[in-house]
Amino acid sequence: MHKNRIILVITLILAVLAIFLVYTQSNKTLNPKVSEFAVQDTASITKIFMSDKSDQSVLLERKPNGSWTLNKKYGALQENIETILQTLANLEVREPVAKAAHDNILKVMAVKSVKVEIYQHKYRISLGDLKLFPHEKCTKTFYIGDATMDNEGTFALMEGADSPVVIYMPGLRGFVATRFSTLETDWRVHTVFNKKLPEIKQIKVEFIDQPQESYIVVNQNNERLSLIRLADNMEIPIYDTVKLVNFVNAFRNIRYEALMNDMEPQRKDSIMNSAPKHIITLECKDGTKQSIRTFVRLLPEPETDPFDGSLVTYDRDRMFALVDNKDFVIVQFFVFDKILLPLSSFTKKSI
Predict the structure, then answer these.
(1) Cβ-proximal residues to 122 (8 Å cutoff; 6+ apart), any chain
(2) In what order do the strands lie in the sheet with 154-158?
(3) Which of 16, 54, 222, 239 could disulfide-link to 346, CB 3.0 to 4.6 Å?
(4) What confidence score (pLDDT) does residue 184 get?
(5) What is the pLDDT of residues 118-127, one digit of tens each?
C-alpha cells in the first residue's frame, strides 16, 4: 500500500512537471508553421513570385549564368535582387501579434498584402552526398502586410497559419515590407546600351541641331574602326583613334536614371512630339538594333547662370529620352556625355 502511494505521488509530480514544461515552452516558441520565414540557402532559390491585391505581380527567375530576369522579358536589377535575397536569409519573427489586434490585422491583410512564393532547387532523394532527381519546388508561401506602429517591424502571415506575426531583419532600422515590391519598375535593370565592340556592327550618332557633327562609326571586322561624316557620307581619314575606341567601349554600360512611363500622358506626348536633340542608333552584328532619342528637359522656372548671368531654361544635368520607342526615361549628361561626342571631338588635334 505504502509503495503504491509513493508511485502515485511520483506520477503526479512528473505529470505536473510535464504540464509546466509544455506550458513554458509554448510561451517561448512559435509554431514552426507560423515562424519559419527565412530561407538560409538563398543560392538554391530559383524563382520568386510576388503579387498583390491589385493584380500587380513580378516574377524573378534565376538564369543558369546567375543573372536574374523579370517577368520573362527584362533583366532584373542586380542590386535589388541582392537586397531581397539578403532579406530572405535574415528574416526573423519578433513577436506574435497581440490578441487584441489579431482580428483587425487579419482583416487588413485580407485586402492589403503581398503574397510571396519562394521556389528552390531540391532533390527528391538527398542522403548525405547522394542527391538524386533534382526538381524545382515551391518551399514557402507567405503574406507580407504593412509596417507596425513603431516602423521597426512588418506584419506577416505564413500560408496555412491562423495567426499573423511581426517579422523584422536584425540590424535593419526600419521595416522590410518595401523590399517585397510588386511594381515592375522597381525591379527593371536600367540598361540602355550593354554591347561590347565585337558585338557591334555600327553606331550612328545624329546631332539634330548640328548636322555637321553627325557621324557613323563602323566596326571593320574588329580590326579597325571607320569614321564617316553623315553630312556627305565621306570617310574621315585622320582621327583620334584612342578617343574613338573609348567612345565605342563606353557602350558596354550606359544606363538611364529613372523610368518615366507613368508620366502624365499629355505632358509625355508633348515632349516626345517635340524635335529631339540627339538620335543614337546601335546596330549589332546579329541584326538587332537599339536606339535612343533625347529631348530637352525644361525647368519649371528659368534660372540665372551664376557665371555669366544668362537665363537658363533647361536642365543642364538631365534630359528626357525615348529608348527603343518604348520606354520614356530620364538620363544624366554625366553618363551620356561619353557617347554624345560630336564629330569634331575626334578630328581636332589635341593642344
Answers:
(1) 44, 134, 135, 136, 137, 139
(2) 74-75, 68-70, 57-62, 45-52, 114-127, 130-147, 154-158, 165-168, 92-96
(3) 239
(4) 94
(5) 999 988 887 7
Q: Could you tell me which of 254, 255, 195, 245 has the C-alpha nearest to residue 217?
A: 245
3-state SS class at 116: strand
Please report, as a single letter, which amino acid is at residue 199. E
Dist. CA 147–CA 152, nearest whole Å: 7
Instruction: List own/partner pairs for 97-101 with CB under 8 A and 24 or more apart.
Output: 97/155, 97/163, 97/164, 97/165, 97/166
- How many CB atoms lie under 10 A from the CB of residue 333? 14
Grid cell, residue 223, equals: 580590326
- Where helices occur in the chain by DSSP H, the ranges are 2-28, 32-35, 78-90, 99-111, 241-249, 265-272, 333-336, 344-347
Q: Which three cell numbers stand for residue 262?
A: 507613368
Instruction: Output the nine-digit C-alpha cell for 324.
Output: 527603343
Q: pTM (2 decimals)?
A: 0.76
Reading the block at residue 143, the C-alpha cell is 503574406
Q: What percent of the chain has pLDDT over 90?
A: 76
CA atoms of 316 and 307, how far apart (whole Å): 14
Backbone φ and ψ of 70, nearest 5°: -120, 120
Query: What three-state secondary structure class fits 297?
Result: coil
Assign residue 107 a region (left: φ > 0; alpha: ψ between -120 and 50; beta: otherwise). alpha
Output Rg (C-alpha) for the chain, integer angstroms: 30
CB atoms within 10 A of CB 112: 12
Report domain extents, the chain.
33-186, 191-347
